Model the fold of this input.
Amino acid sequence: MKTLAPHTKARHFRRQAIDMFMSGLCIAAAGIGLIMLALILWMLFSKGAAGLSLDVFTKPMSSTGTGGGLANAIVGSLIQVGIGSMIGAPLGMMVGVYLSEVGKNSRFASIVRFVNDILLSAPSVLIGLFVYQVAVAPFGSFSGIAGALALALLAMPVVARTTEDILRLVPQAYRDGAIALGSRENEVVRKVILPAAFGGILTGILLAVARIAGETAPLIFTSLGNTNWSTDLTKPMASLPIAIYRYAGSPSADLIQLAWTGALLITVGVLMLNVVSRISLAAMRRG
Amino acid sequence: MLNQISKGLGRAVRAAAVAGILVGGIASAYAQEVIGAGATFPAPIYTKWGEQFKAAGGPALNYQGVGSGAGVTQIINRTVDFGASDTPVASERLASNNLLQFPAVIGAVVVVVNIPGVDGNSLKLTGPIIADIYQGRIRMWNANEIKALNPGITLPAVAVAPAYRADSSGTTNIFTSYLAAVSLPFQTNVGAANSVPWKTGVGAPGNAGVAAAVQNTKGGIGYVEYAYATENKMQTPQLENRAKKFVKPTIAGFNSAAAQANWAGAANFAASMINMGGDTTWPIVSSTYVLVPKNPSDPERAANVLKFFDWAFKSGGPAADQLHYIALPKAVQDQVRKKWSAVTANGKAVWPAS
Done:
């Protein structure tokens, strides 16, 4: 190894020092994020776990002092998030495919992209009020389907955005190769691009599901909430976020406990969704 | 491509529709449900009454505490069977929207304090002193005005830390109505409304937020509904009432206010129970109101709402006691029932329904 001239050596040390300093900042930033997450989880587990019992899953909500559960809210959330995802995810995927594979940088695609970004950052309560105007007020009734529609509108732009971003990562050579082999445009998308980007698109959909699972504001004026058992989509429907919202402000200790337990359930549910999808994705890649 | 997209869209819509039908099918044969929305204050008692009403053979009740303002909007838009508001709605607004208003249950607002070394329950305060505290005119707990009222209590040199509701709230309306009634400066500088321009203090969301702000602040003072103070075992000072007597917040004191109110003379039952006479009367009491359409599109649902409140008036007393509410005086219940004949469908009153 050649000996370094003194000024080069000094520069070397300066660069090393800057590198260490910057790395330190990055680690600190990551650490702060992790600590926050750990604190939130710890808080949820320590406060919510105490209220976990079979009753939470088997009994519907009821008034204070009667040992109610959250069963109707859990089922209501599953229904609304399920239908919301089933409507929002395919629509979002189609928009994403259009933007990445068809519209690309055309004027119309730019407009669609811009509008999608606005939708993405729109406050969720606005989406709720919009759905209230089109799907609640005209029918004279709050309904589970209105809640699902509001959630679909929230999920769609997230999926559109992630789908487009992921599809753009698929190498151009795949498209060129498929076309060279005589595939039509829709075959390229269906048989080459989408399978190649499957994992990323699924992650985007799961992100969207996770986002809408915790939304309260768009549900307040669409599905309203329900203290009774109801799976009728044309009637007000319970959901976990609304149950948490109502119970957290209650004067009664037992209902506040149920609110913590509900928050724990949503968090664990979203976490499980992520873990399961990652494991199955990995398994699919191997298989 | 477009063809493909439309095919995909069709498939997605079909999938969603099938899922919807499946899920809806499971639900089906549920009995009529009474749906109400509005003030958060009566939500615990309406829910409790709903369960007991259902157990007694009535339809299920779904009441959601979305806030008084939203409750009024929802009944005007006819998206619910009844709306609920902590403050009475103006007569013109009731008339233009074809609504009938009646009181359902009575509640009280209490003052809560957290003063180190002082038993807040034995502390005595007056309305004007509280008004001065909320205007920043009294800043310390050992101020002369407070000391003069409490000769037996050693008050610390701790700053007064007022807390108020950050959200628009019927509780704030009741509390500021009281302060405005007993303090002219408060009436001119702050006024009485669901949200007012407070001169000092910190805002916190909801009763629970104000309760927490007071509990976590040395020298804290706030106002909450009676149930929140009781459930959280908070210290509630005695207040001087109109008869110049210091009273503790008790159910008897709330009942006395309800008995003093001039129900017969108030249009749409908007009778004030603020600062009423009587030796034992608690000065900050108010009823919460229910709004129903006079021209319901579905007479059966409208009848169910009235049946529910009829049942609650008759049999809901014990549950009200248990949850720290005050049932309407019997005479007022009868006046309310008479007004129900104004709810008609096809020219016939829906209550009593045969």
Q: What stands out?
A: Chain A touches chain B through 50 residues (CB under 8 Å).
